[in-house]
Structure formats: structure tokens, C-alpha cells
């Protein structure tokens, strides 16, 4: 999915289902998610204690899934994301925070997480609104249950301090 990073309409990205993450913060969130899930495929949103995640909170996003995955609303948007992207997006919808040509791209990743019960890894770059420069990152995206059956929320962490591998760096240029 995505292009070579030179076309702003088609961002380059690696997206994969995995339990292998380079970022220590992403591994910390994965360990918490796994422990909280216990024998279940994934934990329920009501089981998540954000205070227990204080070391990763600045890079966290919690998404509410509405209308069967047609709408994604940010329940929580960490401070580091606000710094990098130049917007406070708590309570906002995807189409309110992403450029029109990027909404489908971002939504596709979250829909894939919604369909699975496995952790997802995203390595890409984002254009910082205030600085107009690209920040490379590794993200973890994890499904959460809620009222009713299936995935009702997604918790994600974006680590902008993570250093991509040599192959990832080459692709992100």
C-alpha cells in the first residue's frame, strides 16, 4: 500500500500484521494489551487504564469506530501527535484532520485493524503542519472491544523517536 514517498497523494508505508516492533514504547503497549486481553482475542475498551499507559500517553490515539467502520472518531489524541501534526484532534473525525486526498489512506489502515484480531505495525512518515517537514515513525495499532460484538475501538501509539531500519530509511526518502 502506498507509493515511493515522492508523491504527496500516495504516501509510502509498510503495513503488516505482526507482534514484532522496533520501538520500546510500542512493545510496552503490546505487552499491556496482551496481558489485559488474557484469554480473549483482544481486550475491551473498558479494561484499558490510560493511567497505566502514562509512559506512552503522549503518542497514543484511541479511536471510536462508528457506523460499522464508516466513521472513525478520536476519543483521545496524545500531545506528541498535536506537536508533530500541528492540530489537536481529540473528538474529531478523520475527514476533519486529514487532507481530502489522505482520508482514504488513513481510513484503510484502521479498517484493516478493525477486521483482524492481531497487532498491526505501520512504518511511514507524516508531514508536520507547523514545520512542513516529514517525521518518520513506527506505529502499533491494536483492536479493542466495546458494546456489542467485534472491534469497537482501536488504540494506537505513534513513536516519532523510533529509528527505521536501513531498508525502511531508503524507502522513506
What does this entry look like structurally?
The chain has helices at 24-37, 79-85, 94-97, 100-115, 166-172, and strands spanning 13-17, 60-66, 71-77, 120-127, 134-144, 153-159. It is α+β, with helices and mostly antiparallel strands. A six-stranded antiparallel β-sheet has the order 1-4-5-6-2-3, with helices on both faces. The chain starts with 12 loop residues before the first strand and ends with a helix.
Short description:
This protein is of the alpha+beta class. The protein is 28% helix and 26% strand.
Overall geometry comes to globular
- What's the helix-strand series? EHEEHHHEEEH
Low-pLDDT sequence parts: 1-10
Strand order of the largest sheet: 1-4-5-6-2-3
The percent range for strand residues is: 25-35%
Largest sheet: 6 strands, antiparallel
C-alpha-based Rg, rounded: 15 Å
C-alpha end-to-end distance? 16 Å
- Helical proportion? 25-40%
Q: Please tell me the overall pLDDT.
A: 84
Contiguous helical run count: 5
Look at the helices and sheets and give the structural class. Answer: alpha+beta
The count of DSSP E runs of length 2 or more, i.e. the number of strands, is 6
